[in-house]
Amino acid sequence: MDEIEVVKCECCGLKEECTKDYISEVKANFDAKWLCGLCSQAVGDEILFRSKNNHRSPPPPPSSGAIQDAVNAHMLFCRKFKSNPAVRVADAMKQILRRRSTDLSSQSSSSTNNNFSTSNSTSSSQVPDMTSFSSLR
């Protein structure tokens, strides 16, 4: 069985338990820095965004310099908004749920207007209660 180790994301500070093999694999992808799943996705998106803005089609594989630049940009971003990672994840979930709730409400009202119906197609049980997330701050 692989040894489990606690490792801290170099961008956001989130700690995770991972195998040494997985830690090595992630570090190999991100210039010897270990990034959590959220930060590694953000860095990947940053690399893709930068390659698309260079108007190259198809984008070339990222160079070590491009990876380092994207990691540094994301680390800077994380430092700007440094807070407890769990609070940031909870804030992001609140934002997603609010958007979803708004989308469901607008879909419901537009379908009501289009069908000349007075019934609401979205029940209140489908929209999460946002007050339960406020205790996470």
Describe this structure in words.
The chain has helices spanning 20-29, 37-53, 64-80, 85-115, and strands at 4-8, 15-19. The protein has 137 residues and is mainly α. The chain has a two-stranded antiparallel ribbon with strand order 1-2. Strand 1 and strand 2 (15-19) form a beta hairpin. The chain is globular and about 50 Å long.
Tell me the number of helical segments per DSSP (H or I, 4 or more residues long): 4
Estimated radius of gyration: 21 Å
Mean pLDDT: 74
How would you spell out the order of helices and strands? EEHHHH
Q: In terms of structural class, how would the helical and strand content be classed?
A: mainly alpha
Pfam families: DUF1677
Biased composition (Low complexity): 103-125
Region (Disordered): 99-137
InterPro entries: DUF1677_pln
In summary, what is this structure?
This protein is mainly alpha-helical and 137 residues long. The chain has helices at residues 20-29, 37-53, 64-80, 85-115, and strands spanning 4-8, 15-19. Residues 116-137 have low confidence and may be disordered.
